[in-house]
Amino acid sequence: MTHVERTERLLNLVICLMDTSVAVSRADIERRIPGYDQAASPAAFERMFERDKDELRSMGIPVETVAEPNGEVLGYRIPQDRYALAQLDLTIEERSAVAIAAQVWGQAVVAPVAGVALRKLETLAGDADVWTPADLRGSVQLTVSDGALLPLMAALRQDRTVTFPYRSPTDTEPHVRTVSPWGLRSSAGHWFLVAFDHERSAERTFRLSRITGPVVITGRPRQTPPPPSFDIAGYSIGPTRDDATVQAQVRVAAGRAASVRRRAVAAEGVDPWTADALTIEGVSVDDLVAVICGAGADVVALAPPEVIAGVLTALDQLCTAHSAGTP
């Protein structure tokens, strides 16, 4: 029997309750919605359904209980006039933003949902060709730090403690941090996590670009909640030592290496998408070496010496690994 995740079950429940003009009984819901058949007993199904119903209502979805005058519950429904999507009338710019978002989410765990949603929107609009922004140079890629957003958002929603490898500017190697997340905030083009650091027993701000590996949501509830006065919307991310970056000069092939061009430092009169020489930045030498090597022959490191040396070492190791055992 295939396991059905809760998110999929909730989505199927919404579709089921909207796709009818009459109430759907609990028995029909249990029979028709994949996942409810995995309940160990009728009582377990009742608890599961009640939790799902409360979750949908907490998200603003109007799940109505339909009952007889004597109080007997006939079933449940979601009135389409209260929840159905209104006719879309998006501008080209708005459609482009949706297309870019779907491209980014397409690399995440919700890729199938993002793809289906975009196709449905294209169908409703009737002119799918205009959904791809004409002036988007290269593809939008999720970096490791971007990918950290998903589990961190989930941890905030679930009130869970997380662990992740983190390298500050003074660290030669990443160290695993265990924190209780308080909030996420974007500032000056970077994402930051505000959290309680359990090793240091204090509030800390973490720059997501310095997270070097997977964010793991633990089974432990968030041990230290934020103070009552905490407001992530008004939280000020001031200059910190984590703002330090490393720069490198590179030569880039025309029309290539979008991932490297995204790292370009703003310079007057320089278009990072057409220039053949750029200054790029990263959080460390290793970070820059990785992005340069990832672009293959399309990018050549010109300076500083430590970045050039790092690239040469990485390429030598790569060649050695691939030539091992070759006659």
Instruction: Write down the secondary-structure element order.
Output: HHHEEHHHHHEEEEEEHEHEH
| Mean pLDDT level | 80
Task: Count every helix, treating DSSP H or I runs of 4 or more residues as helices.
Answer: 11
* Count of discrete structural domains: 4
Please count the beta strands (DSSP E, at least 2 residues each): 10
Write the layout of secondary structure elements.
Elements: H1 6-18, H2 26-32, H3 42-58, E1 64-67, E2 73-77, H4 80-83, H5 92-105, H6 111-125, H7 144-147, H8 149-158, E3 160-166, E4 175-187, E5 190-197, E6 202-207, E7 216-221, E8 246-252, H9 258-261, E9 277-282, H10 285-294, E10 299-303, H11 305-323
Antiparallel strand pairs: 1-2, 3-4, 3-7, 4-5, 5-6, 8-9, 8-10
Helix pairs in contact: 5-6, 10-11
Give a brief outline of the structure.
By secondary structure, this protein is α+β, with helices and mostly antiparallel strands.
Describe the 3D structure.
There is one protein chain. The chain has four domains: 6-83, Orthogonal Bundle (Arc Repressor Mutant, subunit A); 92-131; 146-242, SH3 type barrels (Roll), CATH 2.30.30; 246-323, no CATH class. A five-stranded antiparallel β-sheet has the order 6-5-4-3-7, with helices on one face. It has a three-stranded antiparallel β-sheet with strand order 9-8-10. It has a two-stranded antiparallel sheet with strand order 1-2. It is an alpha+beta fold and 327 residues long. The chain has helices spanning 6-18, 26-32, 42-58, 80-83, 92-105, 111-125, 144-147, 149-158, 258-261, 285-294, 305-323; strands at 64-67, 73-77, 160-166, 175-187, 190-197, 202-207, 216-221, 246-252, 277-282, 299-303. The protein has eleven helices and ten strands. The model has no long low-confidence stretch (mean pLDDT 80). Helices cover 36% and strands 20% of the residues.
